[in-house]
């Protein structure tokens, strides 16, 4: 019976130690990416501003990456986001503020061309953010099948005026008991202003042998929309109870900071405790046997 218990403890230690081994890449995966085909637009997004009653000009570059001559046509749509993970939805614009310089162009294989466009805003237009996409579309026939290929330039432009850059949290969460290499947390900020802003998620652990504050890359936050954002803080070296501060800040200076207590138990510490229990389980029965003999 004792040997069975010892075997079970050894299996438990092995399982915990395997938790520390990083995963390997899937077999058969190739590090080489396929060459792109179709249409290419650069840049993929632009950020512009204009006064009410004024106009601004910009341009994009369209390239034909196929082996066929393409008639490329240009159209304009408005876009917004539909859910917490910011999937895009597109619709026909209710105005003609954004206009490309030409309706279409013929592109030879691997040829590129610059397409100017103009944004004209009527007087007394409401200040805030407006969001358009300039689409390049073409028909491509392959093996008797005709497909429509598209590329898009997302255009964020701000009509200057009284801009409101307020946001707050709709929900948040954090793991209070952590065993892994990071302490994950989740934020759901909502932009209650009238213009987009950029959000930087950050977190910090307080205590001995902890890393400096960690800040994410920028995430865009659209007006009137909630966005789900995930962050993670590197776990400390030593087990214990730690104070965590986490939250976000925007480019407009708006900041939210939360704090919480987290219990961290690293896998090596669990293995150590199990090893101690194994050693105690090995020697304690011998002591009891000796005392009965005496």
Provide a short characterization of the protein structure.
The chain has helices spanning 2-18, 267-293; strands spanning 39-42, 45-50, 55-64, 70-81, 88-91, 98-100, 104-107, 112-120, 128-142, 145-159, 167-174, 177-178, 182-191, 197-206, 214-215, 219-221, 229-234, 240-250, 255-264. Strands 2, 4, 5, 7, 9 and 10 form a six-stranded mixed sheet that branches. Strands 12, 14, 15, 16, 18 and 19 form a six-stranded mixed sheet that branches. The chain has 294 residues and is mainly beta.
Write up what this structure looks like.
By secondary structure, the chain is mainly β. It has 2 domains: 39-159, Immunoglobulin-like (Sandwich); 164-267, Immunoglobulin-like. It has helices at residues 2-18, 267-293, and strands spanning 39-42, 45-50, 55-64, 70-81, 88-91, 98-100, 104-107, 112-120, 128-142, 145-159, 167-174, 177-178, 182-191, 197-206, 214-215, 219-221, 229-234, 240-250, 255-264. Helix 1 runs antiparallel to helix 2 (267-293). The longest helix is centred in the C-terminal third of the chain and has 27 residues, at 267-293. The chain is elongated.
Give a count of the beta strands, DSSP E runs of length 2 or more.
19
Radius of gyration from the alpha-carbon trace, in angstroms:
29 Å
User: What percent of the residues sit in helical stretches (DSSP H or I)?
Assistant: 10-25%
Q: How is the CATH topology of the largest domain named?
A: Immunoglobulin-like
Main sheet: strands, sense, barrel: 6 strands, mixed
Mean pLDDT: 85
Q: Beta fraction of the residues?
A: over 45%
């Amino acid at each position: 019976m004792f040997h069975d218990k010892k075997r079970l403890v050894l299996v438990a230690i092995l399982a915990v130690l395997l938790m520390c081994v990083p995963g390997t890449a899937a077999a058969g995966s190739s590090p080489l990416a396929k060459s792109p085909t179709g249409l290419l637009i650069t840049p993929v997004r632009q950020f512009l501003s204009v006064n009410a009653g004024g106009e601004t000009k910009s341009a994009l570059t369209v390239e034909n990456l196929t082996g066929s001559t393409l008639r490329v046509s240009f159209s304009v749509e408005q876009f917004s986001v539909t859910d917490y993970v910011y999937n895009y939805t597109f619709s026909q614009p209710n105005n003609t503020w954004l206009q490309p310089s030409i309706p279409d162009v013929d592109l030879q294989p691997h040829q590129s061309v610059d397409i100017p466009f103009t944004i004209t805003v009527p007087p007394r237009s409401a200040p805030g953010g407006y969001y358009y996409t300039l689409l390049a579309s073409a028909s491509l026939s392959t093996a008797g099948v005709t497909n429509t290929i598209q590329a898009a330039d997302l255009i964020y432009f701000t009509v200057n005026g009284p801009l409101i850059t307020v946001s707050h949290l709709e929900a948040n969460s954090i793991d209070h008991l952590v065993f892994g290499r990071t302490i994950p947390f989740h934020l759901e900020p909502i932009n209650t202003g009238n213009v987009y802003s950029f959000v930087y998620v950050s977190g910090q652990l307080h205590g001995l042998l902890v890393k400096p504050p960690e800040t994410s890359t920028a995430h865009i936050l659209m007006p009137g929309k909630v966005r789900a954002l995930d962050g993670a803080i590197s776990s400390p070296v030593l087990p214990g109870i730690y104070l965590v501060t986490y939250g976000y800040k925007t480019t407009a200076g708006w900041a939210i900071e939360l704090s919480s207590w987290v219990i961290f138990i690293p896998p090596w510490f669990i293995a150590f405790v199990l090893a101690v229990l194994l050693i105690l389980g090995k020697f304690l029965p011998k002591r009891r046997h000796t005392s009965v003999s005496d």
